[in-house]
UniProtKB/TrEMBL annotation:
Topological relation to the membrane, as annotated: Multi-pass membrane protein
Transmembrane segments: 7-26, 32-53, 60-83, 146-167, 197-219, 225-244, 256-280, 292-324
Name of this protein: Permease
Protein source organism: Thermosipho melanesiensis (strain DSM 12029 / CIP 104789 / BI429)
Family: Belongs to the autoinducer-2 exporter (AI-2E) (TC 2.A.86) family.
Listed Pfam families: AI-2E_transport
Principal localisation: membrane
A single cellular component GO annotation: plasma membrane
């Protein structure tokens, strides 16, 4: 049995290494893989919800596909144009906060602290401008690649889901017969953990986007769509995304006065504390992943694969953690 596990670990490791090398050489492969993986898992999540409505099997998958692509098309046609229009107000408000030093109202009685905050804000402002320019540049340069990625990802998502039974039977055949069961159990463990990860991330992102839309409708009416859109997108990045999401909200809240500032920030903190507890507990149910490992993984994978690596980091960490638990740890403990 030990020899079988060793051989299984070698085969799994070789295939994983081939895949990673391919992604490094051909970044379009990585883009298509990440978007397809996320799409497949999201559609499966929708299909599981449909099971409660007595829609099961392939009909649930088909309805799930229709709902998923409808939401994407709806977002592209309606939400993104509105968010783009509100982007001007978004940038103007950020500039207003820095130009008028809105934070001074709250700490003017503490000159030493105020001096330190002013220095910090003077350092942050150009960094935010650089980050904004970086994203705009990436969007401009990546638009042609984006449409190619979407085209192939849509095809792969549809055929992967419609032929999921065939894939489940055929994929283990890439391993020798006498270690096939070990490899199949390992892949099922990884898929289960990935599915739970995507489920909780998507649900968290949707809840956060809705919460931010409600909050913004009271305090930032001219930017409600773009703030909720930004909150949803950034929350697809575990742990780290929250900080990117919080920066503009914190800056905007400085313009509301002390009461508005406290209400907005307490609301945001309460939402994220609840969602963070759910996220960590769900991940611990499948694999013992802690936030520190996730952050380190995001940093490293982002450096290797670029922007899309942010979304690949935790799935890759899930694979590594499962590989460790299945093949490496038993050898260390024996």
């Amino acid at each position: 049995m030990k020899d079988k596990k060793t051989l299984a670990s070698i085969y799994v490791g070789i295939y994983a290494l081939i895949f990673l090398i391919t992604c490094i050489i051909f970044d379009s492969v990585l883009n298509v893989f990440v978007f397809t993986l996320m799409s497949v898992l999201i559609v499966n999540l929708i299909a599981r919800f449909l099971n409660f409505l007595k829609i099961k099997g392939k009909p649930a998958i088909i309805v799930g596909l229709v709902i998923y692509f409808f939401l994407i098309i709806y977002g592209i046609i309606l939400i993104i144009p509105v968010a783009t229009e509100q982007f001007g107000s978004f940038i103007s408000t950020i500039n207003y906060v820095f130009e008028n030093k809105s934070w001074e109202t709250y700490i003017k009685k503490n000159p030493e602290l105020l001096s330190g905050i002013n220095d910090l804000m003077e350092w942050i402002q150009p960094k935010l401008n650089e980050l904004t320019n970086f994203f705009l540049d990436k969007i401009a340069k990546g638009t042609p690649t984006f449409f190619v990625t979407i085209f192939f990802s849509v095809l792969l998502t549809i055929y992967t889901l419609l032929y999921s039974s065939w894939l489940k039977k055929s994929l283990p055949n890439i391993f020798p017969k006498y270690i096939r069961n070990i490899c199949e159990n390992f892949l099922e463990k990884v898929y289960s953990a990935l599915s739970s990860f995507v489920d909780v991330v998507i649900i968290n992102a949707v809840i956060t986007a809705i919460a931010f839309y409600i909050l913004s409708s009271f305090y930032f009416k001219d930017m409600a769509i773009i703030l909720s859109f930004w909150a949803g997108i950034t929350n697809l990045i575990p742990i780290v995304g929250v900080f990117f999401e919080y920066i503009p909200v914190f800056l905007f809240s400085l313009t509301l006065g002390i009461k508005g500032f406290i209400i907005v920030n307490l609301f945001v903190i309460a939402i994220h504390l609840g969602l963070f507890v759910i996220f960590v507990n769900v991940m611990k149910m499948h694999l013992n992943l802690n936030p520190v490992l996730m952050i380190i993984s995001i940093i490293i994978v982002n450096q290797i694969f670029g922007l899309v690596g942010i979304f690949l980091a935790v799935p890759l960490l899930i694979f590594i953690a499962a590989y460790w638990d299945e093949f490496i740890k038993p050898k260390f403990e024996s």
